[in-house]
Model the fold of this input.
Amino acid sequence: MWLSMEAVYIFLGIVVTLGSVWTFADRSNPKRFTSGLFYLLYGVTLLFGSVIPPFYTGVLVLIMVAIVGFGGLKLGKYEEASPEERQQHRQRLNNRLFIPALLIPILTVIGVTWLKNVKIGGAFLLDPNNVTLVSLGVATFMALLISMAMTRSTPFAAVKESRRLLETIGWAALLPQMLATLGTIFTTAGVGAAVSEWIGTIIPTHSLFWIVVAYCVGMALFTMIMGNAFAAFPVMTAGIAVPLLIQQFGVDANHVAALGMFSGYCGTLMTPMAANFNIVPAALLDLRDQHHVIRVQVPTALILLAFNIAAMYVVTLMD
Amino acid sequence: MVLIGVAIVIVGFIIRINPLLVVTLSGLATGLFAHQSLYEIIEQFGKAFTTNRYMAVFIATLPVIGLLERFGLREQAEHVVSNIKAATTGRILTAYLVIREAAAAAGLTSLGGHAQMVRPLVAPMAEGAAEAKYGTLPDRVRDDIRAHAAAVDNIGLFFGEDVFIAIGAILLMKGFFDQNGIPSDPLHMALWAIPTAVAALIVHSFRLHRLDRSLHKLLHRENGKGRA
Done:
């Protein structure tokens, strides 16, 4: 294929690694060497992740975590444009500023829908296994070129701005990857099996209503622990839904699946373990409380969890 | 004993130790209690970290968004909204919720996102609408509006995407049932996702409506000088 996921990672790696050069040189940052090192190492894992032996990547990861743990990651100065400057530019560029921003989703969608199976010279244009992500990467790259032309900026100016944003996110940028890692370790260590066994011992197996409650709440809770409904679904469904709902009470698997997965999503809305949805945005939006997004989501999540339980119970009665 | 890692995570998050540390410690502890060697655990860290690089893909959007912000994108988004009389924080977020959820239901899950849509466009619009009515916002109100903007992106995505047959979640469930020899049908799974998807839209729109009311109550009194 012409454009693989690896190409996107190289783009990410270049952005992060180049940015770290300014961090090393940023005298206003009290910890500029350790902060610079953090972003340099992160860039290296993105650039060369598939080449470096896993053990050494693991060591790099632990060094990054240690830098954060010992307070070595600090903010610097980012020479932001003053409000007056932004005002001037804005009046000149006006609504044209929206064009590159809106091109990102539009081009991504075009890539996903129309370039999905396009082949050039017998090879796929976009990695068929990662069409969405590769499309997103290409879309942002094209939007970047357009916005550089529009604002007459250099690539370095763009990297400096991305450094400003990335450093506002800071350690949270690493968290989604680390949580996915933890998920893998939990799975190999058998945490899922232990949890579903424990839940199996506490629910009354003769009451359809309480089985439904246990399954839906279990999906939500286990998703909160794992940070991912996809990890919770096989465990909870094999532990509760298959033996009790589907086999014992003869409930339709399609109903169980749709409503069970949504119960898991309610859990996703309530957990810091789903960092890419809940913690990274809080950092990205400069919120003072890193759990603010979760706090806002909890009421909706609980109401919908109750809705799922009720809907599943009603549907199982009809089956 | 393998549950020690779960306990570490829960306690760590409750007493608010840096999540990155909590997660690393939990991983190390879980591995050690499962009788893995330190070398194996570190190797797993490295391997999974590399496999999950796709989670970092939001970084690709930062150069464009950063550059556009330098040239006033967020201010422009606020400005555009402040000229629309009927625009309120809640209505803007409701409109985005509808678009996000409908697009996700049609399989267009990439039409949105915190880095590319919420930070540069949706949040400034939601804030701009409130500012046009009530003047400068107190920090806690500004935070609240931004958190709501992020939440709308999540809720629209989550409860929309399962309505689409070819989405990862549906395929995962289908695969699971196939493995266990239980008949299932992606079309029916997607169909049975619709009631919850509609409920999510109604429940959250109602909450956004209430957000408008509470903003009005809070800020109308505080600032007094509102234009509305």
In short: The CA atoms of residues 9 and 169 of chain B lie 25 Å apart. Chain B has a mean pLDDT of 89.
